[in-house]
Design a protein that fits this description.
- With 209 residues, the protein is mainly beta.
- It has one domain (4-207).
- It is built from two helices and 15 strands.
- It has helices at 83-93, 104-110; strands spanning 4-14, 33-46, 49-50, 55-62, 71-78, 112-115, 119-121, 123-128, 133-138, 142-147, 149-150, 157-158, 174-182, 188-203, 206-207.
- Strands 1, 2, 3, 4, 5, 6, 7, 8, 9, 10, 13, 14 and 15 form a 13-stranded mixed β-sheet that branches. A two-stranded antiparallel ribbon has the order 11-12.
- The longest helix is centred in the middle third of the chain and has 11 residues, at 83-93.
């Protein structure tokens, strides 16, 4: 198994209500799961290939809850990456060279019956976890933006997060609201739904705690 590790920032947006039931082992708000995620790798490697400063994204859709399977995924890879870096990013995002079900990437891929060939494009990711702000674009493939949840009466920003000490994606996140779209093989449109910001610290064995 190839040795790899990433320290990254994620902005993820799914179709559920602001309190995503999946994070609480409950069924999705609308009975199905759709998600678009953007990942900025601040530091990382895949074998001897450095991944620092590269980006990746995906669009995923399942006809029911994730664990019920039959999903489809569109990986999106930073076109600045060289061949070794592309192989590394795609391997991480599709659960290869990873202990079985050890990362959310591996789980998501295992629950997809179709993983489409990757799209290589420019990916721009602007995220501020503390402010719950995001503006992301994978040119020609996907885009997303996020902002804080607002109090319905006062309009003030509402801050809330989820703590998952044993999570396979994050141990703590910041929750907000998001709007995202994707095109192509997994075309989605998400509007004013659950979004989160979290730091990813992963390797082939799962979350590094």
């Amino acid at each position: 198994m190839v040795d790899w590790e990433i320290h990254a920032m994620e902005f993820g947006n799914c179709n559920c209500g602001y309190a995503c039931p999946c994070q609480f082992n409950a069924l999705p708000t609308h009975g199905l799961c759709q998600a678009i995620g953007f990942f900025r790798v601040d530091r990382g490697h895949f074998g001897g290939a450095k991944l620092d400063g590269l980006n990746m994204a995906f669009a995923c859709a399942w006809p029911g809850a994730v664990h019920q399977g039959h999903g489809k995924m569109q990986p999106i890879i930073d076109k600045r990456a060289d061949e070794a870096q592309r192989r590394g990013l795609l391997s991480i995002m599709t659960g290869k060279e990873t202990k079985e079900m050890a990362t959310f990437f591996a789980v998501y891929t295992a629950m997809c019956e179709k993983v489409h060939d990757p799209v290589y494009t420019d990916i721009r990711i602007e995220v501020d976890k503390d402010k719950r702000m995001a503006k992301c674009e994978a040119v020609g493939a996907a885009s997303g933006r996020g902002e804080p949840i607002r109090n319905k009466v006062t309009g003030a920003e509402h801050r809330v997060g989820i703590v998952l000490p044993n999570g396979f994606e994050f141990t703590q996140n910041e929750v907000g609201r998001g709007w995202s779209t994707s095109t192509g093989q997994v075309a989605l449109k998400l509007e004013d739904s659950y979004a989160h910001w979290c730091e990813l610290h992963l390797n082939q064995n799962g979350v590094i705690r």
